[in-house]
Design brief:
Strand content: under 5%
Number of strands: 5
Oligomer: single chain
Distance between the termini: 58 Å
Shape: globular
Number of helices: 12
Structural class: mainly alpha
Length: 321
């Protein structure tokens, strides 16, 4: 299974075992994942199409939402089709380099998703705290630059994962008890010292996750102060209602992430391994599935755009900061 080169034992391929302990139920387990993937693809592609074709949605809030949708649909597409091949056709082999590529895109896109949520929090902060300067501060070039910076941050921080993982010797076999190539799941197959991988992974989690959460927290603290200071209850409700969709997206994204992070480090021996794997898959699939639904239900302009697209009626869009 492993071929030897001049520096280490490098496998030609890995075997992704799917969900350990639930092999007999893989076909049934695949059905909700497949259903969620279809909703994620249709919903996010629909949002991107709607935002690109409706002039009333050509505003910073919706540009960031389109970027989030693109990130989400790309993220789940890097893992779910391969996972379904494991469940349905028992196609468990993945080339070593393809595994490293999948690992890179999974972690880079999850980092980018977190960054986009942070940018959306800053967008809400500017819209509520500086409404008269909203269009001046968040111009199209600023939106493009912040989106590019978020992308480059993910790429530059995640690229070392591939080199750190590739340098390891793999002499314990090539079986990975997972549905996709996660950084630490691959590193733990190695018979070498992967402490550097673990330390760098923790550092990246702090640089991306903790930084973004701090920015989101500060933004919403300022938003709450601005909303509470409004004299009218109706104005307070209207101002904060523009944030509800984003708050739901934050909860949907970060709750599974925190569970996975803390369970691996503090509850690894108490929680069954198949629960870890299922939650790790939901971490990648739940936000892409739920975000289009949440924004479709909570955002009036998007609902109107959907009705206009489906019914062909002339719908008057209401403007909302």
């Amino acid at each position: 299974m492993c071929g030897e080169n001049s520096s280490s034992l490098t496998p030609g391929f890995f075997i992704l075992n799917g969900i350990p302990g639930l092999e007999a139920a893989h076909t049934w387990t695949s059905l909700p994942f497949c259903f969620m993937y279809i909703i994620a693809v249709v919903g996010n592609c629909g949002l991107i199409y709607l935002i690109s074709h409706e002039d009333a949605l050509h505003r910073p809030m919706y540009y960031f939402l389109a970027l989030l949708s693109f990130t989400d649909v790309t993220l789940c597409t890097t893992t779910v089709p391969n996972m379904l091949c494991i469940f349905w056709f028992n196609l468990k082999e993945i080339d070593f380099d393809a595994c490293l590529a999948q690992m890179f895109f999974v972690h880079m896109l999850t980092g980018m998703e977190s960054g986009v949520l942070m940018l959306m929090a800053l967008d809400r902060y500017v819209a509520i705290c500086y409404p008269l300067r909203y269009s001046i501060i968040l111009t199209n070039p600023v939106i493009a630059k912040t989106g590019l910076a978020t992308f480059l941050r993910g790429v530059l921080l995640i690229i070392p994962f591939t080199f750190l993982t590739k340098r390891l010797p793999y002499c314990r076999g090539n079986f990975i008890p997972h549905t996709y190539c996660d950084h630490m799941s691959v590193a733990k197959v190695s018979c070498g010292n992967f402490k550097v991988n673990a330390v760098y992974g923790l550092m990246v989690a702090l640089l991306i996750g903790v930084f973004d959460i701090c920015c989101i927290s500060v933004s919403y603290t300022m938003i709450l102060r601005a909303v509470v200071s409004l004299s009218s209850a109706d104005a307070r409700h209207k101002a904060f209602s523009t944030c509800t969709s984003h708050i739901c997206a934050i909860v949907i994204t970060y709750v599974p992430a925190f569970f996975t992070f803390f369970a691996h480090r503090f509850g690894g021996h108490n929680i069954p391994h198949h629960i870890h794997i299922i939650v790790a898959n939901l971490y990648l699939l739940l936000p892409p599935t739920m975000n289009p639904i949440v924004y479709g239900v909570k955002t009036k302009q998007i609902r109107e755009g959907v009705f206009k697209f489906l019914l062909g009626d002339k719908v008057v869009f209401t403007q909302d900061k």
